[in-house]
Write a structure and sequence with these properties.
172 residues, three-stranded antiparallel sheet, 5 helices, 3 strands
Length: 172
């Protein structure tokens, strides 16, 4: 449990530190190319949700984010999923969510600065990265868990009829 709290606090700290650095070093600069035409640091004040969607709905995001963060935290700390993979993924999502929530509450917008220019992607931040990687880890875990259950025959949803198993051919 202490490790999960440390992960959450570490993510929040890293997120807030990088956003502070973005304000100090990037706010007055147009864009800083870390790798020209691939990865730039570009200061953006994002009043919307992840990747700039639904601009200027601050209170909607704050309510939704608070419910999601509290719900995930209750699940993580009260029901304690057995899988470390799932625990870490939840901690990453919670930490990233809190990092962005701090910006919304204190500033009224989220500071974004990572600009992946190679594919003209939305500018994002460290918190967004942890939320996305945590969600990806959760999806991988859930898919692997379903496959494992299917292989063990724990669910009828995985059963195939004879025609599917034999690729449509009747072999007896």
């Amino acid at each position: 449990m202490i490790i999960l709290i440390a992960i959450i606090l570490g993510i929040i700290g890293l997120d807030q530190l990088t956003k502070w650095l973005a304000v100090v070093f990037l706010q007055s600069e147009p864009s800083f190319p870390l790798w020209k035409d691939v990865l730039h640091f570009t200061y953006v004040e994002n009043p919307g949700m992840a990747f700039g969607m639904m601009q200027n709905n601050r209170w909607v995001f704050m309510v939704f984010s608070t419910v999601a963060i509290v719900g995930l935290a209750v699940y993580l700390f009260r029901f304690r999923p057995e899988s470390r993979w799932m625990q870490v993924s939840l901690a990453m999502i919670i930490g990233g969510g809190i990092g962005n929530m701090i910006d919304r509450v204190v500033l009224g917008y989220v500071i974004d600065f990572i600009d992946f220019t190679l594919i003209d992607f939305a500018v994002f931040n460290v918190a967004d990265s942890f939320v996305c990687v945590g969600a990806g880890m959760m999806i991988v875990y859930l898919i692997a868990d379903i496959v494992k259950d299917c292989k063990k025959g724990k669910t009828k949803d995985c059963e195939k009829n004879d025609a599917e198993q034999n690729n449509g051919t009747d072999v007896e």
